Amino acid sequence: MTERKRSQKSRPNGKPDAISVLILHGPNLNMLGTREPEIYGHETLEEINKRLAAFGNRCGAIVESFQSNHEGALIERVQAAKMQRFSFIIINPAGFTHTSVALRDALVAVDIPFIEVHLSNINSRESFRHHSYFGDVAVGTICGLGSQGYDLALQYAVQPRT
Ligand code: DQA
């Protein structure tokens, strides 16, 4: 994983904010469990989100998940994350990975470090999946490890930073 700039924020009383991670899921990921299980596995999005929230709880981090099939809704959620002072974003942009300059621009605009996650190995699939609009501006990309990719990304995101 490559390192990208991380901002160090603090409250007015000088205490650092609690680590807070927003997990974003793009289109069709609400269908996990029944959607092409041979590629995306049998777990539902709810099961994955519950596991991630439980891990966040154990680490004392705030973990919130959001899924949308709409590009604009994802962009608005990213913009709101800035106001809410989220410290990290984990995003599986799904089909928007290969099409959305606008969602990429939103992530760059809010300047919140993020990890790109894909359940499948996008590099070993159809050639139109090989290009991502997010990889070069992400802290790192995890793909092909199934839902475990989210757990690994979250483990990284909750690490205390100086
Ligand atoms: C995906 C890969 C994308 O190419 C695809 O459009 C998805 C899911 C993945 O998690 O493997 O919807 O992001």
> Which CATH class applies here?
Alpha Beta
Write out the distinct hetero groups bound to the structure: 1,3,4-trihydroxy-5-OXO-cyclohexanecarboxylic acid
Number of H/I helices: 5
CATH topology: Rossmann fold
How many beta-strand elements?
Answer: 5
Order of helices and strands: EHHEHEHEEH
Which overall shape is indicated by the principal axes computed on the Cα atoms?
Answer: globular
Q: What number is the mean pLDDT?
A: 92
Q: What is the chains' assembly state?
A: single chain
Task: Name its key features.
single chain, 162 residues, alpha/beta, Rossmann fold, five-stranded parallel β-sheet, 5 helices, 16% strand, globular, binds 1,3,4-trihydroxy-5-OXO-cyclohexanecarboxylic acid
Structure in words:
The protein is an alpha/beta fold. It has a 5-stranded parallel β-sheet, with helices on both faces. α3 (71-83) packs parallel to α4. The relative contact order is 0.21. The chain has one domain: Dehydroquinase, class II (Rossmann fold), CATH 3.40.50.9100. The protein contains 5 helices and 5 strands, in the order βααβαβαββα. Residues 1-8 have low confidence and may be disordered.
Structure summary:
By secondary structure, this protein is α/β, with parallel strands linked by helices. It has five helices and five strands, in the order βααβαβαββα.
